[in-house]
Each structure stands twice: as C-alpha cells, then as structure tokens.
C-alpha cells in the first residue's frame, strides 16, 4: 500500500499544498499539487492558519483516497512566529482530521529541509521577505534537535534584508530620489514605477494604507529584474546589493550556530567551512543577485561551500510531515511546533 504525506507551503503571495508519496527508501515524490491564496496581515494578525485549514480541506476533497492514507502533515509558513496565533489548536485540529501527526514551522525551516534534505548547514531564503537559518543536522538517531538558529526575518519594516519587499522598497526609494532631483541615477526605475503605480504622488496612499504592502513592494522586483536584463546598471547594482545582504545574513547565522554548538568562543569563529545554500523565488530575478551573494559570501569567508539547493520549500514541507510521522522532530519555541 502506498504511503503519503501532505506538505503545505504558505507565502506572502500564494500558497500550495502537495500530496507526496514516500517510497521504500524514504524518498519523497510530489504527485499532485493545489494552489491557494497568500498570507494577509491585518490588525488581528495573520490569516496563515485559516489558509492551512482550507488547504487541508481542499486536499481531502481532491485526493479523497490517498488522503485516507496520510501518515503526516508538514506546514511551512511565513510570519508564523510573530504574526499568527498559537499554532497548537490548529495543529491538533488538522492532526485529528487526517488521523496522523502534524507539524508546523517557519518557512525558513521547510526551505532548509528542501534545500539540504535534512543535512546540516545554512539556508538563506529570498522571497517576499528574507531569512537565514542554520542547523547542525540530525543526530545519530536521525532526530532534528531544537538547535535552529535564525538571522533576519524581521519583516519589511525592520529587516528582510535582500528580500523582494526590501528590493522593491530600495528601488522605489531611489526612484523618488530621482523624482525629487536628489539623485539622477534612478531615472529608469522612476519610469518603470510610474508605469506600474501611476504618478509618484499617489504612491503613499497605495502603500501605506494597504495590508499586503510587502507583497506589493516585492512585485516591483520583477521590473527591477527586467531593467537589469536590459543593461540598466543601477538595477543590476540593486540586485547585487540584495545578494550581498543575503550573504551577510547567511554567514551571521553560521557564526551564531557555531558559537551555540560550542557554548563558548567568539561569535565570528567557525571551526569548519560553512555550507550554505540560497533559495526562494527571488533568485529568479537574475544572475546579478546570485553572483552578488556568491561574491560577498566568499569575501566574508574564503572557504565557504556554496551548495545548489536539492529542492524547494514545498518538498521541504512534505519532509517536515515525514519527520513528524517518524517522531524525529523536536519542538523549538518560535521556530517549530509539533
């Protein structure tokens, strides 16, 4: 009989649920997916768990037969630690519905599981937001201990350095500097932003009054990428800057993890060459961002090992569900819930 897990990935601009089949070797293959809405944040917080519940319901309706054979559910979501309610009641409800264990984690954890397959290292995720997360890998029993160490993920107002909203905000800021006659370098950005959002005088009302402004800002990254591909040096520089910011966060997470593992020693001392991977939808913005990441990471640590990600956060969410089913997860406050 086939064995299945459910993986749910919820981001700022959309969500997905995957039905994944587990083979005899413990490998997961996504056999079907469905999409859903992105997270909205208002005065009452995030709607992330109502999205998760609706995706589980949609999975049951769409995949009725394999749904009855689920062994675990994994949920990875943005803003789950700081903007959502306590995950415990919703996890209990989902677990009861599927008759199997359920686990939830910040999206960086599922991105890490997707990119490195449960191995130790650092993963930096660039989507609407940005976060880096480090883990030492499983113990001898295959259990992931609660030693996840994160850097950034502070949201578009305070951080998310190098992410889509950060890039959009930096680009529009430069466009307005050009509009104000302070810096002529953002002429192409100003023209692109005016085509997208209308006259600059209307931008404050469009952004400041909108619940989903992080997604709106991140959407402008598409225009920045197009300008870079057309040869615009300013747009290319912004993409490289985003990559460099991401690299700084990655190496900071590696340093913090190394210090935490030893319990002593300076924060900038790494015993072993760090393994890092860059993932997330924003890396499709172009080579300038990826090369900016590689160049800054190498400058900061010459022996850094940059790995290509094995998979994305959706397979990482399914992996979280598999580990929950196997009892190989340990909860960590603000990071992972089982």
From TrEMBL:
SUPFAM superfamilies: Actin-like ATPase domain. Residues 254-274 are annotated as: Disordered. Residues 6-285 form the ATPase BadF/BadG/BcrA/BcrD type domain. This is BadF/BadG/BcrA/BcrD ATPase family protein.
């Amino acid at each position: 009989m086939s064995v299945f897990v459910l993986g749910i990935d919820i981001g700022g601009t959309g969500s997905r649920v995957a039905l994944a089949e587990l083979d005899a070797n413990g490998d997961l293959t996504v056999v079907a997916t469905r999409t859903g809405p992105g997270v909205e944040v208002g005065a009452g917080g995030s709607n992330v768990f109502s999205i998760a519940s609706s995706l589980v319901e949609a999975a049951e309706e769409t995949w009725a037969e394999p749904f009855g054979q689920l062994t675990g559910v994994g949920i990875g979501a943005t803003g789950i630690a700081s903007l959502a309610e306590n995950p415990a009641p919703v996890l209990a409800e989902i677990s009861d519905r599927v008759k199997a264990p359920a686990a939830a984690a910040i999206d960086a954890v599922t991105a890490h599981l997707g990119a490195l397959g449960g191995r130790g290292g650092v993963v930096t995720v660039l989507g609407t937001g940005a976060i880096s997360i480090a883990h030492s890998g499983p113990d001898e029993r295959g259990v992931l201990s609660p030693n996840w160490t994160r850097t950034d993920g502070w949201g578009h107002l305070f951080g998310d350095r190098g992410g889509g909203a950060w890039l959009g905000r930096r680009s529009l800021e430069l466009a307005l500097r050009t509009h104000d006659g302070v810096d002529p370098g953002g002429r192409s950005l100003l023209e692109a932003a005016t085509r997208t959002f209308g006259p600059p005088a209307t931008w404050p009302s469009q952004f400041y009054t909108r619940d989903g402004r992080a997604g709106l800002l991140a959407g402008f990254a598409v225009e920045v990428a197009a300008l870079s591909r057309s040869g615009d040096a300013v747009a290319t520089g912004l993409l490289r800057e985003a990559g460099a910011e991401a690299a700084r966060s990655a190496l900071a997470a590696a340093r913090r993890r190394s210090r935490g593992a030893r319990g002593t020693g300076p924060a900038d001392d790494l015993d072993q060459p760090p393994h890092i991977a860059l993932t997330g939808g924003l890396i499709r913005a172009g080579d300038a961002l990826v090369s900016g990441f590689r160049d800054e990471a190498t400058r900061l640590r010459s022996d850094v090992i940059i790995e290509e990600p094995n998979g994305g956060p959706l397979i990482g969410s399914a992996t979280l569900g598999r580990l929950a089913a196997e009892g190989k997860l340990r909860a960590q406050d603000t990071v992972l819930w089982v």
